UniProtKB/TrEMBL annotation, chain A:
CDD domains: ABC_Pro_Gly_Betaine (cd03294). It is an enzyme of class 7 (translocase). It is a peripheral membrane protein. Belongs to the ABC transporter superfamily. It comes from Vreelandella boliviensis LC1. This is Quaternary amine transport ATP-binding protein.
TrEMBL record, chain B:
PROSITE patterns: ABC_TM1. Residues 89-268 form the ABC transmembrane type-1 domain. The keyword Transmembrane applies. It is a multi-pass membrane protein. It holds the Pfam family BPD_transp_1. This is ABC transporter permease. Keywords: Cell membrane, Membrane, Transmembrane, Transmembrane helix, Transport. InterPro entries: MetI-like (IPR000515), MetI-like_sf (IPR035906).
Amino acid sequence: MDETRPVKIKVRGLSKVFGKQPQKAIELRNQGMKRPEILEKTGQTLGLSNISFDVYEGELLVIMGLSGSGKSTLIRCLNRLIETTEGEIIIDGENIPTLKEKALLECRRRHFSMVFQNFALFPHRTVHQNAEFGLEIRGVEKAERHKIAHDALKQVGLEGWEDAYPNQLSGGMQQRVGLARALANDATVLLMDEAFSALDPLIRKDMQQELLQLQSKMQKTTVFITHDLDEALNIGDRIVLLKDGEVVQIGTPEEILTKPADDYVRRFIEGVDRARILTAESAMRPLRSTARESDGPRTALHRMRDHTIDSIYVVDRDRRLIGLLEADAASRAIEEGSDSIIPYLTQDFRKVPMDEPLHNLFAMFSEKSFPIAVIDQQEQLLGVVVKGAVLDELARAGEQ
Amino acid sequence: MEIPRIPLGDWIESGLTWLTSEFSMVTRGISRFTQTGIDILNDGLFWLPEWALLGLIALLCWRLGGTRLAIGAIAGLALIWNLGLWEPMIETLTLVVFATLVAIVIALPVGIAAALSNRLYRVIMPLLDFMQTMPAFVYLIPAIPFFGIGSVSAIFATVIFSMPPAIRFTTLGIRQVPVELIEAADAYGATRGQKLFKVQLPLSLPTVMAGINQTIMLALSMVVIAAMIGADGLGSEVWRAIQRLRPGDGFEAGIAVVILAMLLDRLTQSLRKTRQ
């Protein structure tokens, strides 16, 4: 992840206590007590404790945790449907917890659209009237908001359903209306609170795909809450893992899977279909040796012998991969008295980008047993994947 | 030692006397205004010939409730007309309509306020319990010094007696709006007013209508009782039958009340259904 990306929402030291004497609970927390002790001592529930994270511009950040982890509280603190106890939430320079009522309304209108778990559609309004709700609230002129709402409904595939009422729609379609209502509003941040959890599994997968497609088109900053790790891994650019109101780990899906921060995370990722998520990068080994394009055949052959390998990848001065030299091709070059190895290179090998899923690699090993080259976007050689490593990685995933 | 009796009744009486004398301007104003309203409504309904009004009501029933309700309305009203109770029936109807309107005008804002403020809720609910459980006749007594004998006093007592359900149901209706919908409105930056008029009120309308239906029914029963302080209408027919010990007359007037009650009930209920 590029950590220099512009930050859209900055959350620092956010805590939330449910109860009448929040300061008392915070004090005990500062003395190192945990949620159950604080509840026992004061009767106050420490919903969130000292949460800090950033939401980058344009990313889809997933906040994941089991029920009781505080994820719903957290998303509601962001647009202050729930008042915070301490900490900062800064969006475009404004600190949300300290905003006055009017400024808060303004901030919600400009920055936040929200999609709810149980859709929260207005039953007395048609699909179209639901979609234009946010715009109506902001006082957008009728003809204009009609058009925007229409476009948003079209985007989620609900053209022609404008005059239906929510109770005439299936769950999946209702949530599309919820999504259209959020999209029409065109706020800078999209908050999705367990948005697909109430849908059945097949429709849920579809909605995830559609969200990803929309996301690749619009690059809208999105905070997505879920209790489902599969969903989090599937759609998240990054994941914030919550447990008992505290952040356990923040990272990309890959990082969470391969470097779980503690036992809790490790247990959490049990049962996840890791082969689907693991990528070439996780099974990649550094190269023992490479040859340079300026090397002669003797040098190259010498290197192979040194490292007891029978082929070597050849790179140019910028470490861009230009080909593979096999040991017998190198011997032939020496026999034929060639100074350069370039004419003897073969392109008969497989190269993959870092984020290639691991199970795709498996099929590539069928005929030839050259290690698979892993390259980045500039074609630079980063490492290789050998057959054994893939098996290892998959086996380890299976064990856990 | 003897514990002295608390002079609760004396306090209430002196309080009422004070109210009567201090606010006589106000009560007289209300009295005049209400009497004028009743007269206009009565005159209007009497100006129409019986068959025309019957036809109009039947038409209304047919539009809102369908054929069966219309046939029932015609049969019921024709019976009342035939028994010679048309005039007292209209007087009763006027009192009910007027009292209900006043009750709704007061009840809706109070109900909304009680729904939105917990503190107000805690004050208003016991007050409503008081209003509903106090024997209805008791309201008739202070009504007389305030507004004198007659229809205005009847309306005053009726409004107090019949208002609680309208308030309760309004409060209930608004409080029953699902939390997610309130959250949704808040999340999109709705002001309190927008939330009330675009979400809470429309969604509580069926419940509010049920409350209004109850209010009408209570108003009807009270208007009959109010005959004791000189209100015109079917109640006074019943009252006269009691005094002269003529059960036949009493039942005739009683049946007319039942017919009117059923008609009003079905009408408001069908109004509620078409709204849903």
